[in-house]
Amino acid sequence: MNDEIRLGLQRLARKPRHKKSHRLTPEERAAFAHEVVPLYTAGASIRDLSEATDRSYGFVHRLLSTTEGVVLRGRGGGVRRNRQ
Prior knowledge:
Blueprint: H1 3-14, H2 26-42, H3 46-53, H4 57-66
Helix pairs in contact: 1-2, 1-3, 3-4
């Protein structure tokens, strides 16, 4: 993770947030997406974003997948080979 992403995640983590169970209004959701999308496109993982914002993985994933212009990355990780 590069320094730009790390600083962005730290900035997100310091912002005051509503409780996890608080439903976001459309305006709050758009503002949240405006903060999160640039970090995701720069390389931050969904898990990193969910931890920094105190929101669930599913919420962040759904937000990114429904935001216009955002293409979700593949899962990553190594490909397993069968042992012979």
